[in-house]
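Help!! Second protein's tokens look totally different from the first
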Amino acid sequence: MAVRIIAVLLSLMVFWLFVIPVPMGIINAGNITGMLVSAILMFVFIFWGRFSSFVSSLWEKPAGKIFVSVTSLFIAAGIVLAVVMSVCMAREMNDPPKNDNTTIVVLGCKVKNGRPSLMLARRLDAAYKYLSEHETVCAVVSGGQGSDEAISEAECMKIYLTEKGIAPERIFMEDKSTTTKENLAFSKKLIAENGLPQKVTLVTDGFHQLRAEMLAEKEGIDSPYNISGYTAFNVTPTYWVREWFGIVYYKLFG
């Protein structure tokens, strides 16, 4: 009984971790999946006796045995895949350049009322820290203008960095892209046109680095370095799980 109570409480805690971003307007595959899975686990642990009896009754029938076996294999495969992806994501979170022969590429994110969203601001803060410590390095700020954005993400990022003291001539704007793939393809072209160092350092959120690197390498950007912005704990689980779906989708259809 004590184990079941602990399991129910842990499932409830996980559920609330994925609920927290909802009032902030963040609803995506990550927190929907997290809430659904944790709710199912709570239900299973609360009604463990009935659940066990139901599974046992299924197991007694040939079709039920197949269903239970396939479902168990599917769940196990999903867990293994999630663990493998998480390990790979964690490994790519922080791989800073070995020298100054690099070009920083800051990947775009939401702009609100002409100013960077919290997530974008934290990416820019990470870029600013590196640029202020390495005064010969230039940056490409990459992101177009969405229908609900007053200015392009690139322009917003350049304003933010120059206000913090980075010289405007060190910042190159790529303001036409609408996806991460375009961020990277258009930034690569801009780097070549301006004679900037070809070795790229990606600046984005830690959870996004693995997929960004996959996309970069597909665009011919070889083994990019990584610098990650800080992601708030209360939204990390949601975006981390969403990224699993992004990685799988990219591997299947990218």
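Here's the second one for comparison:
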Amino acid sequence: MSDWLTGSMEAHIAALRDCVAAESAAMDNLAARLTATLRGGGKLLVCGNGGSACDAMHIAGEFVGRFTRERAGFPAIALSADAGILTAVGNDYGFDSVFSRQVEAYGQPGDVLIALSTSGRSPNVLKALEMARTRGLHSALFTGSRGQDMAHVADQLIVVPATETARVQEVHIFLLHLLADRVEAALMESAA
């Protein structure tokens, strides 16, 4: 295997291994919270920019559609998915408000907001987290090492111990898949 492939693979494995070791309790807590929210009729909101916007849409699709089990859909909204809303809010209020305005519109007390930001400092993501707090949502910020000091902005902070955007995003999608699997299994067990 070539050196560049080996180096990238080793960095990915190290980030994944270290994150799972450090954040397993936080992931357990988030899974339990999200399970209770969905069981009680609440919903999941997810936001992020760029690749994280795509990851938000991906994971919302896993909840609304299915992850690995046939079941009814779970309510989840990717706040990056509606071009009309993004452009209207961006034009009228500024890009910093594209997610917070949707949290204000859709979020209800007890819902869950998962915010994805590799740096932990995206202004529109931070405003969404502020609005989640105001509206009584439980919030989790998935970030990388550069955002490790941002615990004050969310109820839960899940940090991938890496600075390279690609490694952080790779681990985020892995963690989101684990979350979808855990929540789906728990909700199906309780429905049986």
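Reply: Different proteins will give different token patterns, so don't panic. Strands lie at 44-48, 76-78, 112-116, 138-144, 156-160.
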